[in-house]
Specification:
single chain, alpha/beta, 5-stranded antiparallel sheet, 16 strands, 25% helix, 18% strand, binds alpha-D-glucopyranose
Length: 444
Amino acid sequence: MYEPTWESISEHKVPKWYDDAKFGIFIHWGIYSVPGWAPTTGELGEVPEEVWFVQNPYAEWYLNSLRIKESPTWKHHVETYGKDFDYYSFLNMWNIDRWDPEEWAELFKKAGAKYVIPTTKHHEGFCLWPSEYTDFCVTKRGPNRDIIGELEKAVRNVGLKFGVYYSGALDWRFTKEPIRRSKDLKIICPHTYYYTDYAYNQFMELIDKYNPDILWNDIGWPDKGKEDLKYLFSYFYNKNPDGLVNDRWEVLHWDFMTAEYKQNYPGEISPHKWEFCRGLGFSFGYNQNEGPEHVLSIEKLVYMLVDVVSRNGNFLLNVGPKADGTIPELQRERLLQLGKWLEKNGEAIYGTRPWIRAAGKTTDGMEIRFTKKDENLFVIFLGVPRSGKVTIESLKVKEGTKICLLGSNTPLDYKQEGENLTVILPEHEESITLILKMNPTPEN
Ligand code: GLC
């Protein structure tokens, strides 16, 4: 049992299921999915801050961008809907009669994901479940379906874990000023006891109604309520000992750190469990302006997953559905391609742990990543070595080591040449990565 004290809560460990899972699906679906519009400015971490908020590529930030006069979103809104069209009127246009949560769950399972985390309340403040703490929710306005409840059931029916995203520190129904720079995040956020209780009660409601496996809070938590989180976390852990909380509450305790696009991405193997989240393009919410040129190729997507796992992370890949609940074709295609890759190569990903180092290289300069499971080392080439042999820099195998292509039991010939290891490769059909399995794991 966890007591409502930071000391007791800090005893909670990362559950094995999460460490083994490696890959989850984030879903950003809300009123912002109706306009589904943002400038394709670039990736978080690559755009200067003074440009970021005015030309925000996050389509889920539409309302904030709209509040910034003359921003690209403001211009688009005035041209398309007229300057008097209120953002929340998009609710009347949000029809999800055709939405099929089971179809989503099937797709996520085929993609090889092990958990799913939808937005329950994003910064815009609209609640995607029947909350008793507000009428600004999905069974009183707009879609008129319990999105979170239907999705939770469908996702768990196919054996995936279920988490909830909640925007703790931002709620644009409580604040009217636009956020123009990062330091505004601490100022233009609700500070009242009323909002603090509202947010606390809504998280308790989500825990009681949907028994989530992950509480994925965003931006932070009202200062007045930070000490109350001892009660929320201990209540959550006692209800679900294998549950996890992320690191965006601005309190000392978390189960996993979060990295987003280029922000907080660890340079080495992280000693702490972490999770990398990003969209397939520059946005989390659906953005009609994103085309193939903005969407990660399957190669880049696979290399990202491999790199994150080699550094002790999980990859939370975002899906931004259209307002009507259809998942854009390009996003669907990537998920299915990733699922095919994982079907073939998942042994080198699921259930692995980092080795003594994450990265290596061939003598031709091809990047390599390492993952480990028991006495097996997986050597994952981020590419496909061309010739019949490949030399790996600074890899010393033990006497009698068996080296095979992943999925094959046929030992390959190899030669230790000083610090480097040359492996003779058979004819193969690989196209995105080539993976070797070595047993026992090398010394270094
Ligand atoms: C940032 C963005 C938010 C997005 C979240 C996902 O906090 O403000 O729009 O939902 O990242 O990690």
